[in-house]
């Protein structure tokens, strides 16, 4: 009984970490990464469809400062270029034959600080998700204790295990935050 509650909580906490990690990856750090453009929505095929860049093209990094986008359908290259250019991402796409190149400009100190605040906000929302999962797990443990499926001692032990798991997951998030901060502050 306790094991299933703990496993459910662990799975949900890991999912919360994955979501937060994905959110952090979208924050520009002056380094080229496909996550910067892969979720930008493009109006394609004359406005009949809205697709993400990752559904329309292969996105690769040529070096630390350059992204290369190779559309699956070369006829959509102008639509992808326009979509990225108007996405308010601060990126300037340049068509080079059948591919699009994006050179990632260096970040100003002011922009770095803005991105750092954004990263901290995303980390905090990840921590909130984990705390909510902890709350639900402890509520489930209390419920099975009230139903007399487990004893109060078992409930207290389960609560301690849930708290340990929560502390570990939050430490993982803080580690991700530290790495992102280091990445953002590199010039």
Question: How would you briefly describe this protein structure?
Answer:
This protein is an alpha+beta fold. The chain has helices at residues 2-25, 53-56, 77-85, 109-146, 152-185, and strands at residues 41-44, 49-52, 57-63, 66-71, 93-96, 99-103.
Describe what you observe in this structure.
By secondary structure, this protein is an alpha+beta fold. The protein folds into 2 domains: 2-25 and 108-185, Topoisomerase I, Chain A, domain 4 (Orthogonal Bundle); 34-103, Gyrase A, domain 2 (2-Layer Sandwich), CATH 3.30.1360. It is 58% helix and 16% strand. The protein contains 5 helices and 6 strands, in the order αββαββαββαα. It has helices at 2-25, 53-56, 77-85, 109-146, 152-185; strands spanning 41-44, 49-52, 57-63, 66-71, 93-96, 99-103. The strands form 2 sheets. A 4-stranded antiparallel beta sheet has the order 3-4-6-5. It has a two-stranded antiparallel ribbon with strand order 1-2. Helix 1 (2-25) runs antiparallel to helix 4 (109-146), helix 1 runs parallel beside helix 5 and helix 4 packs antiparallel against helix 5. The longest helix is centred in the last third of the chain and has 38 residues, at 109-146. The protein is elongated, with a radius of gyration of 22 Å. The termini are far apart. The model has no long low-confidence stretch (mean pLDDT 89).
Keywords:
single chain; 187 residues; alpha+beta; Topoisomerase I, Chain A, domain 4; Gyrase A, domain 2; 2 domains; four-stranded antiparallel beta sheet; two-stranded antiparallel sheet; elongated
């Amino acid at each position: 009984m306790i094991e299933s509650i703990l496993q459910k909580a662990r799975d949900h906490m890991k999912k919360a970490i994955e979501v937060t990690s994905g959110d952090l990856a979208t924050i520009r750090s002056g380094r080229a990464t496909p996550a910067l453009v892969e979720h930008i929505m493009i109006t394609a095929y004359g406005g009949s469809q809205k697709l993400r860049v990752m559904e329309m093209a292969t996105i690769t990094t040529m070096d630390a400062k350059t992204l290369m986008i190779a559309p699956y359908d070369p006829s959509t290259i102008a639509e992808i270029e326009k979509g990225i250019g108007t996405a308010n991402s601060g990126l300037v796409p340049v068509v080079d034959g059948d591919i699009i190149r994006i050179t990632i400009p260096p970040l100003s100190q002011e922009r770095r600080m803005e991105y750092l605040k954004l990263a901290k906000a995303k980390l905090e929302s990840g921590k909130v998700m984990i705390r909510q999962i902890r709350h639900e797990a402890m509520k489930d443990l209390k419920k099975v204790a009230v139903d007399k499926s487990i004893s109060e001692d078992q409930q207290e032990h389960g609560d301690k295990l849930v708290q340990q798991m929560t502390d570990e997951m939050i430490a993982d998030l803080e580690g991700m935050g530290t790495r992102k901060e280091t990445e953002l502050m590199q010039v």
